Amino acid sequence: MYNTSHCEHCGHKELTVKHTYVLRRTFESWVPCLCKKRKDGIAAQHSYIMPETWDELGYLDDGRSKIYERTLVEKLPVEEIKRKIHCQGCADEASENDWETEQVGDAETIQGPDAWRMYCHRCNTEVPFGWTAPDRQGFLVPMSTLKDEPRQVWVDPGFEYQQTSRRT
């Protein structure tokens, strides 16, 4: 169905795949009520979301992105959900080390319009690509590998955005 993938600019056959996304994890923290005025034993609660931008670098192997490096790009500002104080005295006396924290639920991954990019490993030229199924499903396919059936591939939704931007 597809030729061997290569860079149309320099002919190199290794293509780098970059996936950028925001990982959002929800946490709940609490501090115990040591004066025993609260039946549930909780002096204060704090719920928040910690978003982080991540990059994954990999290479294209038979249409699949093989990730070899994950990098934390940026810790984004914490998003407050709620903060409740049930026992002001115990909350005021608590140190930072007195708070217990746990992650609530699964992490959520958010992809922007330029979440996926493909580049020549040698010359860093951006390579147009698509997917074998709609909505970024299936395999990654460099557009240069298509022979007679371009309708078999859904162009990546971020490609128009990529054409006007440079690799960062």
Name the features.
single chain, 168 residues, mainly beta, three-stranded antiparallel β-sheet, 7% helix, disordered C terminus
Describe this structure in words.
- The protein has one domain (15-163).
- Residues 161-168 have low confidence and may be disordered.
- It contains two helices and nine strands; from the N terminus they run E-E-E-E-H-E-E-E-E-E-H.
- It has 168 residues and is mainly beta.
- Strands 1, 2, 3, 4, 5 and 6 form a six-stranded antiparallel β-sheet that branches.
- The chain starts with 14 loop residues before the first strand and ends in a 5-residue tail after the last helix.
- The chain has helices at residues 88-93, 159-163, and strands at residues 15-32, 42-61, 64-75, 79-85, 100-110, 116-120, 129-133, 137-142, 154-155.
Strand coverage percent: over 45%
If you compute it from the alpha carbons, what radius of gyration comes out, rounded to the nearest whole angstrom? 23 Å
Let me know the largest β-sheet: 6 strands, antiparallel
Low-confidence stretches: 161-168
Please state the structural category: mainly beta
Q: Helices and strands, in N-to-C order?
A: EEEEHEEEEEH
Arithmetic mean pLDDT: 85
Instruction: Give the proportion of residues in helices.
Output: under 10%
Rough outline:
elongated
Compute the separation of the termini in Å: 32 Å
**Counting H and I runs of at least 4 residues, what is the number of helices?**
2
**Total beta-strand segments:** 9
The number of domains:
1
